[in-house]
Amino acid sequence: MSAHKLDIISQAQRGNPKALSDLLNRALESKQIKIRAKLVQQHLTIFAEGDEIPNQQSLIGIIKRGVKDLGIDTLVSIKVYGKKTNTSNKGWIDEIFLKDAPTTTVKLPISHPRASAFNWHTFRQFTQHMARQMLAHGRNLVTNKRFIISSAGVVLTALLIISGIAGVSVMHVRITQGKAIAEAKVLVSEANTSEASTLDELTTASEKLTNARNILRGIENSWGSLYASAQEELGQVRTALDTVKQRIDAEKSATSILERGRDMAQKAIQYVNTPPYPLNEWQKAKEELSQAIAITESIPTESSYAEQAKIVLAEYKQKLDWIEQEITNEQKAVQTLNVADQLARQAYDYTNGKSRFTAAELTNAKNLWEKAIDYTKTVPPTSDAYRHITERISLYTENINKIEDKLREMNECWTRSYASQSFCNSVYLYLRRPVSY
Predict the structure, then answer these.
(1) Which pLDDT does position 134 carry in this prediction?
(2) Residue 102 belongs to a domain
(3) Do 214 and 277 belong together in one domain?
(4) Over 50: is that where the pLDDT of 145 sits?
(5) What is residue 377's predicted lDDT score, i.e. its pLDDT?
(6) Are 240 and 127 in a shared domain?
(7) Are 169 and 211 in contact (CB under 8 A)?
(8) Range of the domain at 85
(9) Beta pairing partners, 84
(10) Cβ-count burial 393-424 (b if 16+ within 10 Å, e if not)
(11) Which residues are bridge partners to 48 per DSSP?
């Protein structure tokens, strides 16, 4: 097996529509069926045309066996259109489903509850309750003179307990809030927004800033608390979080633009990947690829996708240059064919509606038809217009043969004894009307 054939098989196994078309055309050559394939993402479309409408069951079977033998695993489905060549008859449509479209599984994080901590609030309530009981007991003792001194001691002790509890409580609140503020600052530092550039890095930074914001929001405004410091830090966190969210939105927009541009470019390029094509199809591909370029160029230069956009833009512009060259070639081919058609119409009009000719006039008409043939033959074989020259050359040649027959008849007439202009120059000449491109 030749290296070229191995390369075609290798490309076909990867789902290349051109390679698949070549292999199918070889397999169906004896059946006089022509295949053209287009690939959009993982969905292949096959257009099959023949002198007669291809047998649906037979063709589908051949395609299924071919896909199985090649071991193609990149395709999701194959849609097949079968019709008769050069007819408006839609024929038949069938679809082969090879596998399900890929899905994405998203795993949700599992949260773990925090371990139980010392309940300072319960301990404080208990201690305050005991102090209030001691104060009440002290007031009862005051009514008894014998216990004035004792009552004063009890009351003093209770007051000391209450004031001590308040001081310890304030200290505990400040320590707890200080730890919370320190934890929030660590999260802000870990967010490292100045270094974050990709969408994943910005998303991680946003999560850390959100956690820091929630921690600072939980610091209450009470006597002796660090509420003012927490609010100052909270303002900075909110500003940073808003900036990060704006950058995330910009990155999501950039990746969406890049993907949309890629889809449009692939569609345009695949649309004309196996020339020749009519001029209008080349122009349609150019319009779609130009739109893909314009969309991709709208990605901001500061985006993390800017370098990737620069690479694909170079590829798109190279493909656009190729399409524009093909458009120029096809336009020249069409122009050449139109000139040939114009000469053919002149040749036809030269004799149309007349019944009397001289030999020189018929010779001039013949020369115009021959000139039309010469122009028609200059249409490049690589152009779509080339498909139309066989019919024209056949028509022009037929008309030339008719003129030559009449010229022979006129020459023979002038050799006869009864020859005259009214008799020999009267010619019935029926020529076929030329077509236009």
Answers:
(1) 53
(2) no
(3) no
(4) no
(5) 94
(6) yes
(7) no
(8) 3-97
(9) 50
(10) eebbeebbebbeebbeebeebeeeeeeeeeeb
(11) 35, 82
Average pLDDT score over residue span 43-67: 88
Count of Cβ atoms closer than 10 Å to residue 288 Cβ: 19
The amino acid present at 365, given as its one-letter code, is A
The number of folded domains in the chain is 4
Give the CATH number for residue 270: 1.20.58
Average pLDDT along the chain: 83
pTM: 0.51
Predicted pLDDT at 136: 58
Flag whether pLDDT at 118 surpasses 60: no
Long-range contacts, stretch 308-311, CB < 8 angstroms, 24+ apart: 308/258, 309/254, 309/258, 309/261
The verdict on whether omega for the bond into residue 276 sits within 30 degrees of 0, i.e. cis, is: yes
Angle at 87 between CA 85 and CA 91, to 5 degrees: 80
**DSSP secondary structure of 111-155:** --PPPP---HHHHHHHHHHHHHHHHHHHHHHHTSGGGHHHHHHHH
Out of 284, 299, 324, a domain closes at 324
Any idea which residue has 């000449």 for tokens? 429
Burial of 116 (0-12, 13-18, 19+ CB in 10 A): exposed
Domain end position, chosen among 263, 292, 324? 324
318 and 340 both lie in a single domain: no
Instruction: In whole angstroms, give the CA distance from residue 64 to residue 343.
Output: 50
Helix (H, G, I), strand (E, B) or coil at 27: helix
pLDDT of residue 380: 93
pLDDT digits (tens, 9 = 90+) for 150-168: 445 544 555 544 555 556 5
Instruction: Give the list of residues 6+ apart from residue 276 with CB closer than 8 angstroms, or none.
Output: 330, 382, 383, 384, 386, 387
